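subagent[fold] <- orchestrator: predict structure for attached chain, return tokens only, no commentary.
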Amino acid sequence: MGRWVKIVMMPCGEFLGREWNLQDVVIATVLSSMHFLCLFAPFYFTWGAFWLAFGLHMLTGLGVTLSFHRNLAHKSFRLPKWLEYLFAYIAVLSLQGSPIEWVSSHRYHHQYTDTQKDVHSPIQGFWYSHIGWIIDSSSRFGKYGGLKNVQDLKKQAFYRFLHHTYVIHAVVLPGSLLYAFGGLPFLVWGLVRLIASSHV
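subagent[fold] -> orchestrator:
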């Protein structure tokens, strides 16, 4: 694991006034590609694809709000484990990070709200607070010493599993299923749903 982290955090050079690493470059490339592919949505419009995107947007939005935010980050309520895990898995389909990463960032955000140490501080401008923080992993994970504030989640095998296999659950599996059931219209509108959810 340590070797992988060193590879991912390898410096790639300075650009836009800061140092970039491999993880930042990959995330920026994926986000840019997804936005570009959404331009094809009008050419692949079907009502089935539209309603699928709308339904997935509502479902994954509920997952993020209910699971990642209220249940895991703030511990506002308790659920039976099977239901907690189900909602967390639904939230993973939003492509907003593993439960461990999302909850860690959100807890740091509340610890340092609207200060320079806030993970997505508005003090650093709209661009940074909206999306720039997502492609700045050294700030997101390096400022505070990493994922030290989510020991409650790291103790659970399910959340560790999702953290280490996140790409399979958030990208590969949903993309494959969307394409298998509806071809390019479902795949493209599935991306529209992800982009809409991310910006909301």
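orchestrator: received. Logging for downstream: The longest strand covers residues 11-15. Strands lie at 11-15, 18-21.
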